[in-house]
Amino acid sequence: MKTLTINNLNFNYGNKKVLKNISLQFQEKKVIGIMGMNGCGKSTLLKNIINFLHPITGEVIFKSDSLEKNIINLSPNERAKIFGFIPQKSQLVDGFSVEEVITMGKVSQLKNMWKGFSNQDYDDINKQLSRFKIEKFKYTDINKLSGGEQQRVFLARALVNNPDILLLDEPTSALDIHYSIEIMNIIKKIVKENSLICLIVIHDLNLASLFCDEVVFMKNGEIFYHNDINTLFKEDILEEIYNFKCDILEKNGIKYIIPKI
User: Fold this and answer.
1) For domain 3-259, which architecture applies?
2) Residue 176 and which of 15, 21, 194, 210 are 20 to 30 A apart at CA?
């Protein structure tokens, strides 16, 4: 059983407290939505978990059947074996093909910079091209792809090292509803089949209701709630977190949020 445990995490930007005494635990095979209003600390939390930002206090412990590690003490290359990460805005550079972008995910695991990538590395890259059905774009400039196709490439890059934890910062924010559902279906399937822990910053309440197993509600840098969707998607809780009134409809066990205007 894989678990990710966060204990008493605190982080400041200068004198401003951004994360306040964050303590959480997550388990494998679950998609967990990190939710709350803009500026509440969602993206900062992900960056602290992966140690792109360094907390003032606290620890982030990853545990599996074979190891137990404090993420904060690991090197970037060691973290890259555990995490797959898609930031809020992935930088695109003209001239890089889809294959080259996915290959970038392998750079941290190069055993010998002089010999380059191994046959196993290329097998892993081709596996991702096949998994996301983007083989036909292998040599295509990534900037020539649609938003949904680009997001498939970024997911492939995040998963090319077979990580244990997937961190996604608003992966559907620039996508239409068709591509959003497609990407979330892919994420959900991969998380279940590969026993991953997945944390996803997401704003769309209805998309979260469809695909997330659990939700963490943040406000003002603190954790207000962490539980399953059915427990937390209630009118009073949503008003407390988002400062708006809504109705909640339920069909086939799925809750749908209708804002009152």
Assistant:
1) 3-Layer(aba) Sandwich (3.40)
2) 194
